[in-house]
Specification:
heterotrimer, A alpha/beta (about 300), B alpha/beta (about 450), C alpha/beta (about 190), A: five-stranded parallel β-sheet, B: about 450 residues, TIM Barrel, eight-stranded mixed β-sheet, four-stranded parallel β-sheet, binds zinc ion
Chain lengths: ~300, ~450, ~190
């Protein structure tokens, strides 16, 4: 298996072979969740620090469970308890953590490139759990793992990503991973949330209307709308957004008959997706969550299993 | 400016001077009492000092319209003295320093303080006063008093003068004293929380973008004001193709608009944000560790697209862009060693600008004569410095001696500037400033 | 790899005979066959376990449940492994509580693989007993582990390489011994 990186910072840097072998490996880890004793000794004695500068209970918990099921010692450092609030710089904080000799640092940060900066600084292996609007590789990989349970991941598959593309690291990581595997990706957002020059990315189709993006599509990926952005003049009202871009029964009927519906969570019910669809038979949102643990186990094992030379 | 009577004879010189339109080999130049005394094929004069240059280039000292010297207020980043040392090491003999110090240079007292500090500096330091008090964009500074104290121009650089009525009055009032207004053009609402150029890199990496539009709208506004009022205006650090078009068409209509471009905007594009090396073969030992999202690529205006860089180079060649200015913006290393989005804007440029100018010659963008026009003649004209910008007999003996074949590699640790925030670390340069002379005295010797 | 330097210990025919014998011994030793399950260690142990399952099915008329075990996550050399070990799927779709597990592998060498397998099995439940069946015992144990059913004992030094090839993975059955230098690695 060829994973030649010290860190997992983004799906942008991964080859198709690396992505597929990660997914394959994650497939093997799924079974552990069904055991009576959900723990293997693979990372016994290793320390995983979850360094979260931005609150995210879901992602942090998922990494924590993954680390613990591998028998690693998982330590959580959240922004409120860390020294960042005391005016210490990111590198100071990271130097301090490095001095405690962790094996893996999982980083969530509100700014682009924070994980890269840390990875450059420390000997520990770094997993990017989200840096600003840039990347969230484990989310994209677990999304791919979920898709692969229902569809053949590769050329011929079409995925629609709908929502605030401009500010979404989930969208970016999915775009890189999916296009690397030859999947056609359609993106759709209000023009205020669609980055300029996005159409320059190969394999990407930019759609103006959700109806256009959804037509005959195999996978629908809805993004979370950050409601607090509303006062940044990006959309006039939540109601207006939901009316035009929300996924409801009628819109979903435009997709392929066996299309699946995904959402990275947490859902704003009635905004980007109606409850009827979110709880419907085609939604695989909870599979995404359970796959998250398996995928993150695979990543932690891959990085923490041995030292990097 | 000392009035000494010592003399210095430069033998075997290749003179390149746009002011005299001369690009000639095998000349001698006699400098006497701080001025250019004679230029001839063979001067026999018992000078106090004779230097044989063996064919090296002599060019008028570069004049930088746009530097930030950080004193008073931020002496940990740079001082007037350290900035001036960096200047002469890079071939600059006069540097005009922006007003965004603490306190802001909005009063004669601050202007005089700068000039006092500059008395011992090796380069000539020209204070630029603010346009508005405290650079708050509300009230005009006392332009008369500041002019009398020695301010050479007015600028709220770092900020835009958002209030068009204030900008109008500033333009009108400054014209009383024949002082130019240097405009940092930026529409604040469109600029918003942007950190890099809005384009393919911001789209792909999720960094907040700064649209070219934010600059272009304000350039258009500035030009319209100058045209309406029939007064001169100078556009700082032009970075966009559309900005170039606006300046070019305004010049064609006879508007008295001038513009500058920085070396970093002429050599780097948005891709440097994700790969600092970006096509350049960097010296391994000097290469920065972090090539992606390195904050030495963060400045305002940001590194633009390839298309914009091409337009800037064309505009520099055809004279639409009058001057090269560095926008030398020193920051302490730890201030830049933070998250990209949190890092301060700005890079330093005094010690690399002329060498990059020599690269522009190598890359056939400019001729040697055009380079001296952009580095010396035009800046002197824009600031109304009658005694500088050319080496005609009678002008100040401010010059740089350049070895056009002396290759070197940029090593920030060897900079005279206090700061290290250059995007050019590890770059190979084709030629180098080997001596700098101000008022007839050698102030820098490699 | 050069075939000439290989010293063939058992042919395909021999292997078939050996497996029949082991199957017979398993049946002989475990009268309550309804409480016996087979667990093969990936990769070749699984193939051998399948064959034992088939033979026992035919001779004793009993289909033993078959599990697949990947011991990667239980290895004791993970941090020193130079190449990243591939994790494959463990499938034990039945309870191990109270049953007799026949653990099947191709070669018994240092005993470390079996140690890992035992740890793993115990995480799945509490078997009544675990018995070990191997096709080849080549000696050189590093842990106090012994097999209950041994196909063939091949005394080999640590420098030698004992290879078991099975039809399912390699196209043919064969057990060979060769000097380590002559191999291109597995
Ligand atoms: Zn500026």
């Amino acid at each position: 298996m060829g994973f030649e990186h010290k860190d997992l910072l983004g799906t942008r840097d991964l080859s198709a072979i690396e992505i597929r072998s990660l997914l394959e490996s994650a497939e093997s880890f799924k079974e552990i969740a069904e055991r009576p004793l959900k723990k293997v000794p693979a990372l016994r004695g290793k320390t995983v620090v979850n360094l979260f500068f931005e609150p995210s209970t879901r992602t942090r918990t998922s990494f924590e469970i993954a680390a613990k099921r591998l028998s690693a010692d998982a330590v959580n450092m959240s922004a409120s308890t860390s020294s960042v609030v005391k005016g210490e710089s990111l590198l100071d904080t990271v130097d301090n953590i490095q001095a405690m000799a962790p094996d893996i640092i999982v980083v969530r940060h509100k700014f682009v490139g924070a994980a890269h900066m840390i990875a450059e600084r420390v000997g520990a292996r770094v997993v990017n759990a989200g840096d600003g609007a840039n990347e969230h590789p484990t989310q994209a990989l677990l999304d791919l793992l979920t898709i692969s349970e229902h569809k053949r991941l590769g050329p011929g598959l079409t995925v629609a990503i709908i929502g605030d593309i401009a500010h979404s690291r989930v969208a970016r990581s999915n775009i890189w991973a999916l296009t690397t595997l030859g999947v056609t990706v359609r993106v759709c957002a209000p023009p205020t949330m669609l980055p300029r020059e996005l159409e320059k990315i190969p394999g990407l189709v930019v759609c103006e209307r959700p109806e256009e993006a959804l037509a005959g599509v195999d996978v629908v990926m809805m993004l979370r709308i950050q409601l607090e952005r509303q006062d940044r003049l990006l959309f006039p009202s939540i109601r207006d957004y939901a009316r035009i871009f929300g996924l409801n029964r009628q819109r979903l009927d435009l997709a392929a008959a066996d299309a699946i519906v995904m959402h990275p969570g947490p859902i704003n019910r009635g905004v980007e997706i109606t409850s009827e669809v979110a709880d419907g038979s085609r939604a695989v949102i909870l599979n995404q969550v359970s796959n998250g643990v398996a995928l993150r186990m695979a990543v932690l094992f891959l990085l923490g299993g041995q030292s990097y030379e | 400016m000392s009035s000494n009577n010592s003399s210095l004879l430069l033998k075997n010189v290749s003179l390149i001077d746009a002011g005299q339109n001369r690009d000639e080999k095998n000349l001698d130049i006699l400098l006497q009492a701080g001025k250019v005394a004679e230029i001839a094929p063979a001067i026999s004069f018992a000078a106090d000092q004779v230097i044989d240059l063996d064919g090296a280039w002599v060019m008028p000292g570069a004049i930088d319209l746009h530097v930030h010297l950080r004193e008073p207020g931020f002496e940990y980043k740079e001082t007037i003295l350290s900035g001036a040392r960096a200047a002469v090491a890079g071939g600059f003999t006069s540097i005009a320093c922006m007003a965004n110090t603490r306190p802001v240079n909005d009063s004669a007292a601050v202007t005089r303080f700068i000039l006092e500090q500059a008395a011992v500096a090796p380069a000539k330091v020209l204070p630029i006063a603010a346009i508005s008090k405290g650079m708050a964009g509300e009230e005009l500074v006392e332009m008369g008093d500041l002019s009398a104290a020695g301010a050479v121009a007015f600028s709220d650089d770092g900020k835009t003068v958002a209030n068009s009525k204030l900008l109008r009055h500033a333009l009108e009032y400054a014209s009383l004293f024949n002082k130019p207004l240097l405009c940092h053009c930026q529409d604040n609402a469109l600029f918003a929380d942007g950190v890099i150029h809005e384009g393919m890199i911001s789209a792909a990496h999720g960094l907040p973008g700064i649209p070219t539009l934010a600059e272009d709208i304000d350039i258009a506004r500035s030009i319209m004001l100058a045209e309406y009022l029939k007064v001169p205006i100078h556009i700082c650090h032009l970075s966009t193709a559309e900005g170039v078009r606006l300046v070019r068409s305004a010049k064609a209509r006879g508007v008295k608009v001038t513009a500058e471009a920085t070396p970093h905007h002429l050599f780097l594009d948005e891709r440097a944000v994700i790969d600092l090396a970006c096509g350049e073969v960097l010296d391994d030992s000097l290469k920065p560790e972090q090539l992606r999202y390195n904050t030495v690529t963060k400045m305002s205006p940001p590194l633009r697209s390839v298309v914009d860089v091409r337009a800037l180079r064309e505009a520099l060649a055809d004279g639409t862009i009058d001057a090269i200015a560095t926008d030398h913006a020193p920051h302490e290393t730890t201030e830049k060693a933070v998250e990209y989005e949190l890092a301060p804007f700005g890079v330093i440029g005094l010690e690399t600008a002329v060498a990059l100018g020599l690269r522009l010659i190598k890359e056939k963008v400019l001729t040697p004569l055009e380079l001296t026009a952009r580095l010396s003649l035009a800046p002197a004209e824009i600031l109304g410095l009658d005694d500088r910008g050319s080496l005609a007999v009678g002008m100040a003996a401010d010059l740089m001696i350049v070895d056009p074949e002396l290759e070197w590699t940029v090593d920030p640790e060897k900079f005279y500037s206090k700061a290290r925030n250059t995007p050019f670390a590890g770059w190979r340069m084709p030629g180098r400033v080997v001596k700098t002379i101000v008022d007839g005295k050698v102030v820098f010797n490699l | 790899m050069s075939q000439t330097e290989e010293n063939s210990v058992c042919s395909a025919q021999d292997v078939e005979q050996i497996l029949k014998r082991i199957a017979f011994e398993i049946v002989e030793r475990n009268l309550a066959l309804e409480k016996v399950v087979l667990v093969g260690i990936l990769t070749r142990g699984v193939s051998l376990a399948r064959r034992l399952q088939k033979i026992i099915g035919e001779t004793a008329n009993r289909d033993l449940p078959l599990g697949v075990l990947d011991i990667t996550l239980y290895r004791d050399d993970l941090s020193s492994a130079t190449h990243h070990p591939v994790v494959r799927k463990t499938e034990i779709p039945f309870s191990l509580d109270g049953v007799t597990v026949i653990l099947v592998d191709d070669v018994l060498y240092t005993g470390r693989t079996v140690r890992a397998a035992l740890d793993s099995l115990i995480d799945f439940g509490r078997p009544q007993s675990i018995q070990l069946a191997v096709l080849v015992d080549r000696g050189c144990r590093e842990l106090p582990i012994a097999a209950d059913f041994v196909g063939v004992s091949v005394p080999a030094s640590a420098q030698d390489r004992v290879m078991v090839r099975v039809e399912e993975s390699d196209g043919f059955d064969k057990i060979t011994v060769m000097p380590r230098d002559s191999t291109s690695g597995e």
